[in-house]
Amino acid sequence: YYELLEPAKKFDYSGVYYKDRLPHDKEYHFDRYGVMHEHAEGVHFTKMIPPLLDHQHSAADVNNFPMPDYKGEDLYREAARIIADIDKRGRASALAMGGETIFEVSWPLYGIEEFLIMLLTEVDLCNAVFDRWVDCRLWQLETYAKFGRYDILWLGDDIANQHAMLIPPDVWRVTLKPRMKTLIEASKHFQPDG
């Protein structure tokens, strides 16, 4: 099992997306996706502050939002080297694109509550966010296949809780399902012998 390497954050999200919203009395940090996390009690808990929540809901905001730079090929060379070492040991290698493939890296831009509403009221805008991630993941799949190989591709997104889906199944079928299908078909295309 080898998890996707993630690029370092290179953009100053605080000055552009959090003007006048930085906390003065709490510790915080920005994740690689530009989402601010206020520290809370406990080891694993933070309060997520979405970068686009206070912005106009527009395709321009989505398209101009700086995403991590996944096109540094050294990330993929290192993954290929580690996968080759797994292969030498006679083991199957699983390449993890993470539990955050499309949905879980999309909703933090607006916050979960706002994004779930947007899926019902502004689906075209949500699709624009999804498509940015699909384009990124397709590039990653092609690049991983160029540098090496993998036996199993692990994709995932938390789209449900213990009781039901977070979004109506019919919305999932026309938004996320075809995009996940695209990624699966692309992985087979880029690595037909896998």
In brief, what are we looking at here?
The chain is built from seven helices and six strands, in the order βαβββααβαααβα. It is mainly α.
What does this structure look like?
This protein is mainly alpha-helical and 194 residues long. It contains seven helices and six strands, in the order βαβββααβαααβα. The strands form two sheets. Strands 1-5-6 form a three-stranded parallel sheet, covered by helices on one side. The longest helix has 25 residues, at 123-147. The chain starts with a strand and ends with a helix. 22% of the residues are buried. The mean pLDDT is 87.
What attributes characterize this protein structure?
mainly alpha; 45% helix; globular; three-stranded antiparallel β-sheet; three-stranded parallel β-sheet; 194 residues; 6 strands
**Strand coverage percent:** 5-15%
Give the strand order of the largest sheet, numbering strands 1, 2, ... along the chain. 1-5-6
Determine the fraction of residues in helical runs and give it as a percent range.
40-55%
What would you call the shape? globular
**pLDDT < 50 runs, ≥5 residues:** none
Main sheet record: 3 strands, parallel
Supply the helix-strand structural class. mainly alpha
The count of helical stretches stands at 7
Cα-atom radius of gyration: 18 Å
Query: Strand tally, please?
Result: 6
Distance from first to last alpha carbon: 15 Å
Q: Which sequence of SSEs, written as H and E, runs from N to C?
A: EHEEEHHEHHHEH
Mean pLDDT: 87
